[in-house]
Amino acid sequence: MDEWPGRRDGSDAPDRGLVGAEHLDAMLPFLTEAIYIHDRNGDLKARLSPPMGLLGYGSEVGTNVFAHMHPDDVPRSLQIGAEAQSAQLGWTGEAEIRLRHADGTWRRFLLRIHNRFGDPAIDGMVAVIREIPAAGDRPDPEVETELSAIVDDLPTAYLALGQQGRIRFASEAASDLLASSREDLVGLPITELVVDADQPVVRAAYATLLHTTGARTVVATTRTRFGGRVLEAEFHTRGTDSQHKIVTVVMVDHTEEPELVRMATRDALTGLANRTKVLGTISGLLLDPDPVLSVVYIDLDDLKGINDAHGHETGDLALIAVADRLQDLVRPGDLVGRMSGDEFVIVCPGLGGSALRHFVQRVGEATTRPIEFRGPDGSHVAVTVSAGGATAAPGDSTTTLLRAADEAMFAAKHRRP
């Protein structure tokens, strides 16, 4: 029998299957289970899991085991925990539970509990969790074949989305429209198809339908590798359980109809993003677990007085002049929109804290200098604006963030002489 070099029997053979410290960090992203060690109070002592954890919260040492658990599953988990603590070393039990992911969705997990109290290396309760695929995401070959045959008989670009907005099915027409094979499309997040600027509105459309029924329509541009097309995407859903909903997307190509696209997302007078585009963008950005986002609210001062003194045509020119000035001020990636008659908004991803204060100050300095133009009657007209901003706080919605920016704007307006 062959032997390891230098050994007389098999007792001192090196174990080449053990993971060394030099390999551990590199292997963590490939874990599909998470292992947690809890003390007798249920507080987390240590974990071994992917870098952001299975729930996407990052480091959770000190977090109570029930912090992210569905309330209906807490009694059963308490029962298992009590059994584990009262049982002998080595006891094992399991249950299915629901935990809230960092993206706000509830996901099902298989929880296994091991009593390791008294083990000098661990001295705690070991919990191993593994995500259970939603029933709606488990492919049924017969159903998939039948669905494929039905949909492919229709000249419709159609996608079906599973959990986390990933493409579960794509029709042949969708494959042609997106310039990709169906095999390449399946498994991709729906947001991956579109350019970065349009990802928030697509993400918001999908996330909204997880908690309601009906339809949402967005206009978005696909990435170059997916054809670089301008698409109208209509999202539909059925059911009330967000864990088992099927969200479908019907796509229509509007690349050759730029005017239709412009009307859907742009303010007709100024060419800025319209209210629908602004709200969708903010909603999408707020879906990030820890969003860094600020909104600046701008109000054209005394638009009514301009209209009364010079006419509505001059008022329109004033709005256009302000829109042009704001577009000159923003950073790449910011979105400037017109919310209503005299109100504008700048959506600033990645901006917060002192950076927001400096930006609002810069907007204020640039826009408090009178913007002068010649009206249709030949008169010179000067306009000013007021500006205020707010940074998203935990728990903020689109409504509360805009309200905070609006209040900051009015406070700035009242401080002016």
Chain-averaged pLDDT: 76
In sequence order, what are the helices and strands, one letter per element? HEEHEEEHEEHHHEEEHHEHHEEHEEEH
And the CATH topology of the largest domain? Alpha-Beta Plaits
**Count of DSSP E strands?**
16
Radius of gyration: 28 Å
Query: Major sheet, described briefly?
Result: 5 strands, antiparallel
Q: What is the CATH first-level class name of the largest domain?
A: Alpha Beta
Summarize the structure.
The radius of gyration is 28 Å and the shape is globular.
Provide a descriptive summary of the structure in words.
The protein has twelve helices and 16 strands. Strand 12 and strand 13 (343-349) form a beta hairpin. The model is unreliable at 1-16 (pLDDT under 50). The protein has helices at residues 21-27, 74-86, 141-152, 172-177, 182-185, 199-209, 258-265, 275-285, 303-310, 312-329, 354-368, 398-415, and strands at residues 33-38, 44-48, 92-100, 106-116, 124-131, 157-161, 167-170, 214-221, 230-238, 246-253, 293-300, 335-338, 343-349, 371-374, 380-383, 385-391. Helix 9 (303-310) packs across helix 10 (312-329). It has 417 residues and is of the alpha+beta class. It is globular, with a radius of gyration of 28 Å. The protein has three domains: 22-132, PAS domain (Beta-Lactamase); 137-263, PAS domain (Beta-Lactamase); 269-415, Reverse transcriptase/Diguanylate cyclase domain (Alpha-Beta Plaits, 2-Layer Sandwich). It has a five-stranded antiparallel beta sheet, covered by helices on one side. Strands 7-6-10-9-8 form a five-stranded antiparallel beta sheet, with helices on both faces.
